[in-house]
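Researcher: Next entry in the queue.
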Amino acid sequence: QLAGLAVIAFGLWLRFGGVMADFASDKKSPEYFFMGLYVLVGAGALMTTVGFFGCCGAARESQCLLGAFFACLVVIFAAEVTAGVFAFIGKKAAIQEVQKIYEDVYDDYMKNPGGKVNRTIYQYHLALQCCGKDSMEQQTGLPCPENIQMPKASNCLVEIHNVIDAHLHLVGIVGIAIAGTTIFGMIFSMVLCCVIRNTRDMT
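Model: Structure for this entry, 203 residues:
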């Protein structure tokens, strides 16, 4: 249950509290990346629910509930492995999607500076601590945050790559930790189920 709640909190933080939240606008958002986060939050909710039934099964010494708990953990474990492989394969697509969003906003600003686009591109620059797509474009009057480190932060496309890569690494680490917890849960549930059965056979 605690692992499930931790996964929910982690997924919601990445979606609404991290740098990626700034890329969620009314018309454009990295759906590929966010879809993975929604799956992560859903898996956390499922783990919390399954954990509750596992606690009930252990408290009531019910082989039926413990068997159902074990079966659900097998399904969750398979889903985690599948999601991990999907995230690894889809990392390049997620990076390209977010870069395309920035480039579209950048092009809109260059065509018509000011207004809502000006505020949007500034939010991206502030979140990523970058400005433009190369150092030569700092002369074009882009809305850039103060005190950013140049030239490291001059290319927002590179910064987007770094941010997405780091976030997906975090998701991978969390996935491995959850998978380990799931394996221990399956082992302990089967051991407890066997103990309950042996105890009943002796009586």
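Model: The mean pLDDT is 75.
Researcher: Noted, moving on.
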